[in-house]
Amino acid sequence: MRFYPIAMAGDIVITESPDSLDHQSLLDALDLQGCGAVVSFLGITRGCDDGVKIHRLEFDAWQDKLGGVLHSLASEAIDKFGVKKIAMSHRTGKVNAGENIVSIHVGSPHRKEAFAACEWLIDELKVQAPIWKKEVSENGEQWKAGLG
To answer: How far is the C-alpha of 119 from the C-alpha of 114, rounded, in Å?
Structure first.
């Protein structure tokens, strides 16, 4: 597995993972000193959606902007929720059924803030990150609406 560091500013780790995404290695990159809770989210490509077999998803991203957007979201979450540490990574390219797509880890002194920040991060990532998704299924190919 290869990690491509896009940004690392103290308590924020952002990586691009074109080939694979190692959820545990991303967590291990965080120094959790001062944290009493870690909340994590792992998005995985579904093998079936509404009874239709999904072969893979294909993610296209505006690479020059993706790392900056993720870093900005992490900084905002730290300010908004008072959490201490954030690590995020999103796959690009082809992601087969059962493979990891996106990983988010939020370290915080308390669990309530960590849960709120993690949920906010995945919701905002889907709205703001310059990532587009094509679904390849047994019914053919189609671009999914919206970002993320």
So the answer is: 9
Residues whose CB is less than 8 angstroms from the CB of residue 72 and which lie 6 or more positions away in sequence, other chains included: none
Nearest Cα neighbor of 45 from 2, 93, 105, 86 is: 93
Give the SS3 label for residue 91: strand
Q: What is the pTM of this model?
A: 0.88
| Beta-bridge mates of residue 137 | 54, 140
In sign, the C-alpha dihedral spanning 120, 47, 95, 20 is positive
pLDDT digits (tens, 9 = 90+) for 7-39: 444 467 776 666 788 899 999 989 899 999 999
